[in-house]
Specification:
It is built from five helices and ten strands, in the order E-E-H-E-E-E-H-E-E-E-E-E-H-H-H. A five-stranded antiparallel sheet has the order 6-7-10-9-8, with helices on one face. Strands 3-4-5 form a three-stranded mixed sheet, with no helix packed on it. It has about 200 residues and is of the alpha+beta class. A hairpin with a 5-residue loop joins strand 1 and strand 2.
């Protein structure tokens, strides 16, 4: 900062003028202990569907666990509390002698920025051969974007200013159930989420 003006110095030494600088470093698991124990690691401690590490006597869950993701089946670290709690539940049951597989880790974020709630779930950026629909209400600062795959499943969503649909969106995406005729209903009105949830996820429970 010089005279109140901001600038960013790159690793090359180049200076860039800026109006705003945001430091967004994210999180990274500490893997020293796992590596010392001889466990397989990559960006996290690699675990199977039952949260077992490469040593079957050791389990890992939460922000350090690199587990299979729900839809992509890639092995990722999803460092969010609901994911950590679900992985811990699966690990505990398997350590107690049960045979309980994880449905797969699930990417989700809910952020509060000056009172405006933003959320993202699952494959919010879309998938190959998928479809999407958006609802925009600029006057009320509201937005919802839904992502479908080619099997008529809701696989991702992004919202802004809409909090009442958070649980429903998570349930619709995590269930992996085909929406069938409800896909067209949501394409016509992306806010009809509760009806779609009750007719597909709840009806099958």
């Amino acid at each position: 900062s010089k005279g109140g003006a901001l600038s960013v110095k790159l690793s090359s030494g180049e200076l860039l003028p800026a109006d705003l600088v945001i430091s967004a470093t994210g999180v990274r698991p500490s893997l020293d202990l796992a590596a010392t124990a001889g466990l397989t690691t990559n960006v996290g401690i690699r675990v199977d569907k039952r949260m077992r590490t490469s040593d079957p006597r050791i389990y890992a869950a939460g922000d350090a666990a690199q587990a299979e993701e729900l839809y992509t089946r890639n092995y990722v670290v999803n460092a969010v509390q609901p994911n950590a709690a679900e992985q811990a539940r699966v690990a505990a049951l398997n350590m107690a002698g049960r045979d309980v597989p994880s449905p797969g880790s699930f990417a989700m974020n809910v952020l509060d920025t000056l009172g405006l709630i933003a959320s993202s779930f699952g494959q919010w950026q879309g998938v190959p051969n998928g479809e999407s629909v958006e609802h925009v209400d600029e006057s009320r600062y509201r937005y919802v974007g839904l992502q479908f795959d080619d099997a008529d499943r809701l696989v991702g969503a992004t919202t802004l200013g809409l909090t009442q649909h958070v649980g429903v969106l998570r349930g619709l995406i995590q269930s992996g159930r085909p929406l069938k005729s409800w896909k067209q209903v949501l394409r016509n009105d992306p806010l009809d989420l509760m009806k779609a949830y009750l007719a597909t996820v709840q009806a099958a429970a």
